[in-house]
Amino acid sequence: MSVKQNIVEQSIRLFETKGFSETSIQDVVEALGVTKGTFYYYFQSKEQLLKEIHLMYIDELLKRQEQIIRRADINNKSKLMEIVRLLVNQIRENGRSARVFFREMRNLNPESAATVKQKRRTFRLNLQAIIEAGMREGEFRQDLRADLITFAILGMCNWSYNWFNPEGPATDEQLVETYMETLLHGMERLNKLTK
Amino acid sequence: MSVKQNIVEQSIRLFETKGFSETSIQDVVEALGVTKGTFYYYFQSKEQLLKEIHLMYIDELLKRQEQIIRRADINNKSKLMEIVRLLVNQIRENGRSARVFFREMRNLNPESAATVKQKRRTFRLNLQAIIEAGMREGEFRQDLRADLITFAILGMCNWSYNWFNPEGPATDEQLVETYMETLLHGMERLNKLTK
Amino acid sequence: MSVKQNIVEQSIRLFETKGFSETSIQDVVEALGVTKGTFYYYFQSKEQLLKEIHLMYIDELLKRQEQIIRRADINNKSKLMEIVRLLVNQIRENGRSARVFFREMRNLNPESAATVKQKRRTFRLNLQAIIEAGMREGEFRQDLRADLITFAILGMCNWSYNWFNPEGPATDEQLVETYMETLLHGMERLNKLTK
Amino acid sequence: MSVKQNIVEQSIRLFETKGFSETSIQDVVEALGVTKGTFYYYFQSKEQLLKEIHLMYIDELLKRQEQIIRRADINNKSKLMEIVRLLVNQIRENGRSARVFFREMRNLNPESAATVKQKRRTFRLNLQAIIEAGMREGEFRQDLRADLITFAILGMCNWSYNWFNPEGPATDEQLVETYMETLLHGMERLNKLTK
DNA sequence: TATGAATGAGTGTTCATTCAT
DNA sequence: AATGAATGAACACTCATTCAT
Q1: Residue C1: what pLDDT?
Q2: Which residue numbers delimit the DNA-binding region (chains A, B, C, D) (predicted)?
């Protein structure tokens, strides 16, 4: 693996454990056995490193979301499920990066933050578009605001980075199923109605 | 208002805007027109101030949750709604504190963090207990894991601090209604079933 | 002497010897037996220290020049001599500051440099005004450009900071006399003309 | 133009604009589109580059001064004028080099500085010798100290690098004339005497 | 000839904290 | 109850220089 990739890897590990502000460049280079000069040979600043980590994460998400959106063989409900799965999987597989991504955005400088925010906004609006399409096409109820539902889904999924442990008592697939079942049919007992 | 209260107030404002690590004691005392010595007369350390902010927030939440739990006049579904309302209201009314609470926990020292985490855990388990009671008493479906549902609800509500703007296009009551409607009945179109 | 004054004094000594860029804050505080924190308690930056040194120097010059200009008991020729004397004396008495002043202006930030340049310009134009008055009032030749003569006088005097040593073979009063004699009557032998 | 010459040219430009200490080797090589290794192939150190710039400048001055001194067809007064013209022209034509020469000598290492100082001293003593010859041969007054006069002339001319702008309101020839007229005949109005 | 990677010592600056008054 | 002076350890970052290729 290249020196630059090594720096990224180690710094994600340290940023996740100690936090971005609390991790010094010294910490990063010591973990790699190189010197500060080496770090600054590959990165212009500490902030630029954080920016690269953010872009790697959000660009991957957007790429995969795009693939889901383009699929013609599945309906909007399935697309929604795929996106929920995407978000949860990403947290399971790249938990460290996910936690850095969600926690450390405030440490980007204004320009980087604007770029990242724009991409996150795109991801959100793509999801909202699926829900709106599902409403138009009769898959989803039309009496709920699509924008608020979108935030609800994102909150539900993204919050997982705070607690979800792939080695814990629930698998990520169970998580996806529970989330989808709740989102689609709700938690209220229905036989009350059918009785 | 006492000097100490003033310090807390100003520091919440600054911690929310700039972040805890990025706010210096100097920033805090300058905003108040006093000197650093004054700060250290009232607080042993910067971390202790953060701890107090956290405890104020979580203790208030726990107190109100306790009041909801104790009510004998409403069923579990209504208690769930009251807790969703509590979480959303708290973000609307004490947005600054909420954001500091959710973002800056990593800056507590291990002991403070343990205390706060225990209280957050209590809040979560209290919510989970309501859901489990609702399941037992026939209000909620029994085929969903209560623990995962609890995380889903908390994620949905707490995530709001990331985007919810009380002056924006949605009121907090609309938010509560959309969240509850989704949680209880789901977003799938039901007339398919009834046909 | 106050700590701040001490810092100024020591740093003038070091800036003169080693140069501003080549003198570190560490050098300054070590020479005083204090720590870097102390330096930054009194100064916002290294540049601000340099700015204060510059302003002290030029403000003193301007103040004394003003006193000369206001005198009603002497003519323009005498005022010119007093200003030459002022410049040479200042170099003799505050040689270190003079050298820092003339050499290190490029290290001021743009705003500070603008302030200092404006004051130097004022000093120069004050001198030029005396020469122009002397021309109008018949003391000086009118066939020489006052602006160029002013630069010539300033160059002659200010250059002394490069070589003049008060302990050397010429006193500052001899310097003033030679400069004035040359400026007023020139170095060409006159008896050629009168013969 | 050779790579080495290019480096010299660009670095004079940068040293003049930003200062020697404030210009990094990186700045120099970036301006040329080469890498640091290239620089160190042609120069042993940053200081050696500065030394070469200094030597080029002073050697050129000394060479031209030598030519003036050797002329048998003109008297000392004319030789003085030629030297004044040489100094002013040099500033007009090689302003950048001139400014680097006058400002950055302190950044030479002791040996280089000694070499350059010796050459500057030679230039000054050569000028002083002309003045002393002029005194002996009846061209100049004998009641002024030749050493101090020499410093006065050098100051007058060299100071020009601080302000003289060839595109400004005065030409270099005007400057030479004004300086020579002042130096030879002084600025005092003579008709007082002749009346 | 020229490069690219790496070093190591240094820079200006920040800041939580202490403490005599 | 509050101040002002001082500390010391840390921080992000720079840069002249080296050297294998």
Answers
A1: 81
A2: 24-43
